[in-house]
Amino acid sequence: MLIKTTREIPGSEITDEKHYLQRRDFIRLVGGAAMIAGAAPWLQACAADPAAADFAGTAGPAVVPGQTALANVKPKVITTTEKLNSFEDITSYNNFYEFGMAKSDPQQYAGALTTSPWKVKIDGHCAKPADYHLEDLLEPQQLEERIYRLRCVEGWSMVVPWVGIPLASVLKTVEPTGKATFVKFTTLHRPKEMMGQNNRSSLAWPYTEGLRLDEAMNPLTILAVGLYGKTLMNQNGAPIRLIVPWKYGFKSIKSIVHIELVDRMPPTAWNQSAPEEYGFYSNVNPQVDHPRWSQRTERRIPGFFKSRQTEMFNGYGDQVASMYAGMDLRKFY
Ligand code: MTE
Question: Residue 78: pLDDT band by 50, 70, 90 thresholds?
């Protein structure tokens, strides 16, 4: 599956044309408003913005309390012609154990999380370690919309229009040294607001994840800050999360506060809690079953049945398979 740009796939194939046109207008209008206001070019308060209020996307409300419209977003990068999941699907069926273990818990409880101000520390084996305010991290970057499949190891999947920046461009700014071979990511630890972190039996907190450096630098890997053209809802990992579309969803760590360049494979939350169930690599693979869930097929939310064939690397093999040359794909990693 190749990455296709908007020029190659008409947006009307992905969303219905009325909404597609509204969306293009929305990006243009909000972008213009941001320039006029002289605000951070990627962020535009939308509560009082009639252009943003008109935007309906493919589904869901135009303005949700706590969200902000994103401006200056590059044209879509579309990797699938499958129908997008609705805003409602994406924001109401979540895994975010810091807020509880039921799928509805994150939507119900994540509002308690304070996401502004937000800092991300980037350090370890690099020449220019720094503590970034989120605004400073995003300011020099242009946001991109990335329409990706998301496949959870539990056997369900969605198609999500993320907005974010390539992780590679962020890592390049801190200049990794030759010692950096892996990247470790850590979620915020704030049990007062993330009440699930008081439950020590679920996972070792804070949630951590990791990638090999070449995986982190792959052009598909992004740090997402929005979906459907607006900032992330807390339940989806506001204000900034990882998206690695060819791996099971648990690798895509939410609400990141620390990115560290390291010289060995870092421990990760799920691998530590059940190493025989969750490998470090965890590439989507229909040939290797999880002990409790077959991975051969998947259930597209909101559907009930596992009626879709799972694709190797979640359909992104053309972009990523070469990174795993020599690995036996029938094995658990
Ligand atoms: N990140 C943190 N910090 N905590 C979590 O519980 N769950 C993971 C991942 N990132 C999780 C996390 C899992 S299991 C999945 S499937 C995806 O987030 C779900 O992302 P979504 O809720 O936006 O669909």
Answer: confident
